[in-house]
Design a protein that fits this description.
Number of domains: 3
Family: Belongs to the acyl-CoA dehydrogenase family.
InterPro entries: Acyl-CoA_dehydrogenase, Acyl-CoA_Oxase/DH_mid-dom, Acyl-CoA_Oxase/DH_mid-dom_sf, AcylCo_DH-like_C, AcylCo_DH/oxidase_C, AcylCoA_DH/ox_N_sf, AcylCoA_DH/oxidase_NM_dom_sf
GO molecular function: acyl-CoA dehydrogenase activity; flavin adenine dinucleotide binding
Distance between the termini: 55 Å
Keywords: FAD, Flavoprotein, Oxidoreductase
Structural class: alpha+beta
Number of strands: 9
Oligomer: single chain
Protein name: Acyl-CoA dehydrogenase
């Protein structure tokens, strides 16, 4: 049995894009996977540039963003991004990986025409990567899962703003061409766009993390008296958290889409392995301990896919999506962790070597359970909403 990806309710145009993406990833990107394991901090810029050139040649750069600048629906985007994730290099090649995909979505929704022309157009063409500067060092009491703890400050100075602070886990900052910085002013949180590199933004170190799929890795940053023109602020002062919400729910869901694709591929590899490998007189698949794990994977993968499309439909219907995306983030990340773990287990020693991409998928999905909000934070948030709903239904 092979995994049949959802096609219902998706336009022929989107399905054509999705099918082209799948062929491109399987035929052209997958053979380059061994080259991506040379750095603990993600694929090299040279490999990234090569992959993007390949995608351009196929007319697949940012394939979910149409020629007129409009986006596919979230349901249609799911069909495309799931297939992009069939290789950890796929989202990079197609320029739909984090944080770029979320940043492009945000700028497309809220940036002024001038900022779109200056920043967004270069991103959609894949000419530059981007970074999103929000998380701060925990040891310094900064913002992590609780953005209200933000300590990075911004203050007006004539027709400029001056920003100071520290950031951490800033994905892709090294090598990025632009960034979105969150800081707090007297009015509340603010967002700014900045060209990178900038001498006022110093990369102190690139962290050694369990994952290795994103170019530039995850950096610790010091922002020292960064001066930006007032017209590089997104919207108005104090609206930063509102704009973060615009970005947050779709970005969480995009993570689910991409890593679902990766685990579908891991399942394919594991299934092929256990059908070819023999032990104790028969193929591994015929041992219940192995076969049952793959059966459980098939169920987890399908349930994760259904959760992705359920959340996508909610966003397409106009919901802000905070509840739905929290549910999807928890359900999908936990299901995919089980899938990746079982794939490793089924493959035994082969599953923990770099000879197969399954080992990398396991590492990446383990990090995914934390990135964009740990499972426990989302459960806590959902529990608060459940309590509030009960109180609303049972007033004192």
């Amino acid at each position: 049995m092979t995994f049949q990806m959802e096609r219902r309710g998706i336009s022929d145009r989107a399905l054509d894009i999705a099918d082209r993406v799948e062929r491109f990833v399987r035929d052209q990107v997958v053979p380059l996977e061994p080259q991506a394991r040379n750095s603990a901090h993600g694929p090299s810029e040279a490999l990234s540039d090569r992959l993007k050139d390949m995608a351009r040649a196929e007319g697949l750069m940012t394939p979910h963003i149409l020629d007129d600048g409009d986006h596919l629906s979230q349901r249609e985007t799911a069909a495309v991004l799931i297939r992009s994730g069939l290789s950890p290099l796929g989202p990079l090649a197609l320029h739909v990986c984090a944080p770029d995909e979320g940043n492009m979505f945000l700028l497309g929704k809220v940036a002024s025409p001038e900022l779109k022309d200056r920043f967004l157009s270069r991103m959609t063409r894949g000419e530059i990567r981007s970074a999103f500067f929000m998380t701060e060092p925990a040891q310094e009491g900064g913002a992590g899962s609780d953005p209200s703890m933000m300590q990075t400050t911004c203050a007006p100075d004539g027709n400029h703003w001056v920003i100071n602070g520290r950031k951490t886990f800033i994905t892709g900052a090294e090598g990025a061409g632009m960034g979105i910085i969150m800081a707090k002013a007297e009015e509340g949180a603010c967002m700014f766009l900045v060209d990178l590199p900038d001498p006022a933004i110093r990369i102190d170190r690139v962290l050694d993390t369990i994952d290795s799929s994103m170019p530039g890795g995850h950096a610790e940053i010091t922002i020292d008296n960064l001066r930006l023109p007032a017209d590089q602020m997104l919207g108005e002062a104090g609206e930063g958290f509102k704009y973060a919400q615009v970005r947050l729910a779709p970005a969480r869901l995009s993570h689910c889409m991409r890593w679902l694709g990766a685990c579908i591929r891991a399942q394919e590899i594991a299934v092929d392995y256990v059908n070819r490998r023999h032990a104790f007189g028969k193929p591994l698949i015929d041992h219940e301990g192995v076969g049952f794990m793959l059966a459980e994977n098939a169920m987890d993968l399908k349930q994760a896919e259904l959760m992705v499309y359920w959340c996508a439909d909610a966003l397409d219907s106009g919901s802000q999506g905070s509840v739905e995306s929290s549910m999807a983030k928890v359900a999908v990340s936990e299901a995919l962790m089980r899938v990746a773990d079982r794939c490793v287990q089924c493959m035994g020693g082969q599953g923990v070597t770099g000879d197969s991409v399954v080992e990398q998928v396991f590492r990446e999905v383990r990090a995914f359970r934390i990135y964009d909000g740990p499972t426990e934070v989302h459960k806590w948030s959902l529990a608060k909403k459940i309590k509030r709903g009960w109180k609303d239904a049972n007033p004192a």
